[in-house]
Amino acid sequence: MTYPLIVLPFVVVTVVVTLFSLRRPQRRERLVASLWTAGILVLLTAVFDNVMIAADLFTYPEEHISGIRVGLAPIEDFAYPLCVAFLLPAIGALLPERRDAA
């Protein structure tokens, strides 16, 4: 189970940073936008991962994945779009506001 272990640090960092960002203003709007983005990215990942795997562009050795699949795609592939959808807005919320020089 190599791939689940590779994904784990990304998921942990995403959860921690997202939780810290909940103290910042506009958290509800940010989370709703992240949920919509995550849904779209997961859908795109499901479609295109399955197409690429079916076209034999790449494979996943069974001994390196959890065994849970969505079609042909291992569930681990869906962690990355979820992390992006939540982590990037959370980081943006935690960055200090820029002030204009003028």
Textual characterization of the structure:
The chain has 102 residues and is mainly α. It contains three helices and two strands. Strand 1 (69-70) and strand 2 form a beta hairpin. The longest helix has 28 residues, at 27-54. The protein starts with a helix and ends in an 8-residue tail after the last helix. The model has no long low-confidence stretch (mean pLDDT 92).
Distance between the termini: 54 Å
Shape: elongated
**Going across the major beta sheet, what is the strand order?**
1-2
Mean pLDDT value: 92
Task: Give me the number of helical elements.
Answer: 3
Helix and strand sequence: HHEEH
Classify the beta-strand content into a percent band. under 5%
Which runs of at least 5 residues are low in confidence (pLDDT < 50)? none
Structural class: mainly alpha
Whole-number tally of structural domains: 1
Give a short account of the largest sheet.
2 strands, antiparallel
Into which percent range does the helicity of residues fall?
Answer: 55-70%
**How many strand units?**
2
What is the radius of gyration computed over CA atoms, rounded to a whole number of angstroms? 17 Å
Protein name: Lycopene cyclase domain-containing protein
Domain Lycopene cyclase: 6-91
Organism: Microbacterium aquilitoris
Subcellular location: Membrane
